[in-house]
Amino acid sequence: VQLVESGGGSVQPGGSLRLSCAASGFTFSRSAMSWARQVPGKGLEWVSGIHSDGSTYYADTVKGRFTISRDNAKNTVYLQMNSLKPEDTARYYCAIDRPELRGWGTQYDYWGQGTQVTVSS
Hints:
Shape: globular
Radius of gyration: 13 Å
Number of strands: 11
Structural class: mainly beta
Helix content: under 10%
Strand content: over 45%
Oligomer: single chain
Mean pLDDT: 97
């Protein structure tokens, strides 16, 4: 299994970024996928998830600003991040999630190396 995130960078408050996660080594189209983030010294925070059927879920902190999507033909999951805030600064990880066990963000099978997002003026 391989998950490779890209698209991070530095942006000013109010700006936008689109993260991508290229997946391989498993049946992507049948897998629930999530984005999570982490800042140094804190735990992993679940951000958003998408089921194999395309249904989407968001943490309250990003609802209305972030959009998760997937392209099963490309084995890729995306996170469009708009209206970014300094508190969105974190390392963002793509993960294979198991929401059917105890809900989104409670059980990950695999995750990638992450991509850094910095929101600062």
